[in-house]
Amino acid sequence: MLFIKNIRQKLRLNKYQMGKELGFKNTQAYINFENAQYSINAQKMIRLWQISELSAQEFLEIIAQDVKQNERGKAQPTK
What is the model's pTM? Predict the structure, then answer.
């Protein structure tokens, strides 16, 4: 999800560093997380929020924006 990448870039961390911060066993597992190739568990989301330096409100707002954009992108055009 884009918000995860944006947080990583804001913190100026590469994928390896961010993966270590979040407790992933390897970089590929983090890349899969960032690309939303599998479900995000609550523990990882809480850790992401903790290192993001965002308030809880800001964190939830960027998630909501990302979800909204993804929903728009997946919507089928009507004929």
Answer: 0.80
